[in-house]
Design brief:
single chain; 328 residues; alpha/beta; Rossmann fold; 8 strands; 45% helix
Length: 328
């Protein structure tokens, strides 16, 4: 028995070629829809992931005692020169916020923005610059620079800076010199060569007596060598070094806004690195953020979080969810 196949999409009856062409068309349409669906799901997952992160932090303006947005912080830098982000190094919400604030600052200030990082040392500035400008690939960069073990947490900042031609300051003095001070004291730096001293702040550097020293000694109490003056002097070298790196860059680029990411002990209460920078240029307008996980995060009343405890930490306090998984 014979019969006619229905007319295919190409108007050809009962031909193998026509049937094949029709089937190919249907398959192509199917795969295009499938790919479009996968792209949508991937994008949706990213949006959902970002949206879900917003429930894990609260940003407080300590002056107004109100919850505010990232954009409010970005706008406030219009009247300032430097913004410190004081982080806990393993806080996943904190790292997310660093990247989001950095993007918001770039959106607001464009080429007027610079990034400064505790996580890179001054003698790695050249290799960092070469990576940012595309002269060396990432694998070479990773070998030439002493990356922190949790570099994955800071990579989004570096990659965004690279994509948008934003300068990055390798702010910290080399760890080997900080270690030298902890073992032999401040005077040990005097014997370094001129070439080595180029990576350090001018000597002798300030060691900031008073509240900052008291805080440091209290934190170090009970730890091996915690009571040694040399340990505090090594901490002070970090602060003096980072402040000098920022100041030196600012002197040559006074029109730029600088976003400095650092462990929050170095800038809480506007002490440490921040205080050292303020001493270098008293007219600099510096804002700071203190970001950390805290049990009071779950309190629904923003006025009941304990302002007497938090308000002195900085211009902005960001509380993150202590139940959120740490990055390490």
């Amino acid at each position: 028995m014979s019969y006619l196949l229905p007319t295919n999409l190409y108007g050809i009856r009962n031909t193998v070629y026509g049937i094949w062409k029709t089937n190919m068309y249907i398959q192509q349409k199917f795969f295009m829809k499938l790919i479009a669906g996968l792209i949508f799901l991937l994008f949706s997952d990213k949006v959902i992931s970002q949206d879900s992160m917003t429930v894990h932090y609260k940003i407080y303006d300590t002056h107004t005692k109100q919850i505010i947005t990232i954009d409010k912080i970005a706008a406030a830098l219009a009247d300032a020169d430097v913004l410190f982000f004081g982080e806990e190094h393993n806080d996943s919400a904190g790292h997310y916020l660093e990247a989001e604030i950095f993007k918001a600052l770039h959106k607001q200030y464009g080429e007027m923005l610079a990034l400064s990082l505790e996580m890179f040392e001054t003698d790695n500035q050249l290799a960092l610059n070469e990576y940012l400008t595309g002269f060396i690939p990432e694998d070479r960069f990773a070998k030439d620079v002493r990356l922190w073990s949790n570099y994955k947490d800071y990579r989004p900042l570096i990659e965004y800076a690279k994509q948008n031609n934003i300068p990055v300051i390798a702010a910290n003095p080399p760890r080997r010199y900080v270690n030298l001070v902890s073992r032999r004291g401040m005077r040990s730096l005097d014997s370094l060569s001129k070439k080595s001293k180029k990576f350090l702040p001018p000597l002798p550097y300030d060691t900031l007596s008073g509240r900052y020293r008291e805080k440091f000694l209290d934190v170090m109490k009970g730890s091996p060598g915690g009571g040694s003056s040399n340990i505090y002097y090594s901490q002070s070298l970090w602060d003096a070094g980072m402040s000098y790196s920022i100041f030196r860059f600012w002197k040559k680029n006074r029109h730029k806004k600088i976003f400095h990411c650092v462990g929050r002990f170095h800038c809480d209460e506007k002490l440490g690195t921040l205080a050292q920078l303020q001493k270098r240029k008293s007219k600099l307008k510096i804002l700071n953020i203190s970001c950390f996980s805290d049990a009071s995060f779950s309190n629904p009343d923003p006025m009941a979080i304990g302002w007497e405890k938090f308000s002195k930490l900085g211009d902005y306090v960001i509380l993150t969810n202590p139940d959120l998984k740490k990055t390490y």
